[in-house]
Amino acid sequence: MADLRDLYQEVILEHSKAPRNYRELKSYDHKAEGYNPLCGDRFTVYLEMDGDAIRDITFQGSGCAISKASASMMTQSLKGKTRAEAEQLFERFHNLVTGETPANGNQTELGKLAVFSGVSEFPARVKCATLAWHTLQAALEEKQEAVSTE
């Protein structure tokens, strides 16, 4: 189990240091700002939609390792997904980080996002892990801003 935790920490740190899709998307259809007032994390999520599918998704901003890695991995996981698939993935991810479902039960459904299973042991970090996801929801709903309220 310790080896698995080390691997998970490595993946999170790697995504934090070199986040994927970290840029402003010039041809976005939807955009929202996300803010966690407890720690100051702040992200902007940009979406380019193709009908109901996410053609491209990027983010910019600043935050802790957990929030930045979560945003990075979220963008990788959602490219090409439909709005409904994105909402389902967010629900599964949310259930994982809040401890509502065990990590081992979501491995195949969540793929690499399962690295965030340990977040449930630290309730204050749930907001960090879900900030980008709440911001995504705001962008899909064409709201301008999301505030993490876990």
List its traits.
150 residues; alpha+beta; four-stranded mixed β-sheet; 4 strands
Written account of the structure:
There is one protein chain. By secondary structure, this protein is α+β, with helices and mostly antiparallel strands. 45% of the residues lie in helices and 19% in strands. The protein is built from five helices and four strands; from the N terminus they run αβββααααβ. A four-stranded mixed beta sheet has the order 3-2-1-4.
Structural class: alpha+beta
Shape: globular
- Give the rounded overall mean pLDDT: 89
CA radius of gyration is 14 Å
Strand order, main sheet: write it out: 3-2-1-4
Strand content: 15-25%
**Strand and helix order:** HEEEHHHHE
Largest sheet: 4 strands, mixed
Which range best describes the helical content: under 10%, 10-25%, 25-40%, 40-55%, 55-70% or over 70%? 40-55%
Assembly type of the shown chains? Answer: single chain
Number of helices: 5
Distance between the termini: 28 Å
Number of strands: 4
Question: Which regions are unreliable across 5 or more consecutive residues at pLDDT < 50?
Answer: none
What's this model, at a glance?
By secondary structure, the protein is an alpha+beta fold. Helices cover 45% and strands 19% of the residues. The two termini are 28 Å apart.
